[in-house]
Design a protein that fits this description.
two-stranded antiparallel ribbon; alpha+beta; 3 domains; about 230 residues; three-stranded antiparallel β-sheet
Length: about 230
Amino acid sequence: MAYSKPSTKHRTFTHLNVYQRGQIQVLHQEQRSSREIARVIGCSHQTVLNELHRGTTTQIGANHRCFQAYFPETGQANYERNRSHCGRRYKLAAASHFIAYAEHKILSPDKWSPDAVCGAASRDPKWKNKVRVCTRTLYRYIDRGFLKVKNLDLPNKLRYRSKKSGHRSNIKHLGDSIDDRPAEVQKREQFGHWEIDTVVGKKSREDDVLLTLVERKTRNTRLRHLIGT
């Protein structure tokens, strides 16, 4: 069975595509306002204004008179150029001399740490007007494999493996949450539902503890002394 109406909504905060830019051109030539165009293609009117500004160029007509017009090809080209300039830029190229200096010092028999390299460079006048990176950035470059230096070359670094982002799939669960207990337990109307807990001292985990048992309905409490290990 085919449905005439789509069940999904237009996502906001998405970029315009080539087809939508063609729609903007046609509607703009019909003297439609930016808000009318936005309602047709399903975006913010500010997005339409930005696209018109991005894709409008000055042309010369047949009578040698200049006029401005929106072209979707120009808007797409400017969009792709702007996207190519987005994102974080590493300072590897600009700080290539400092990176080579850091690699030499860290891999030398003295085995300098990245912090020692950055500290020495900050006090050395020859690096005053040259591009350098901070200690944290230098460690990040090493973690990502941008340098000849590896984590194994850093004896003082406790974490030898590079950082890995992601969700742990196998997480040990110690039990169900207390909020998931049945409603009759919450109401305290049935006898026989006990709560158990331990009271631990401040000195050491190996000290004796106190075991508490509380019946929820009658508030009957029992205490047991447990000898520590």
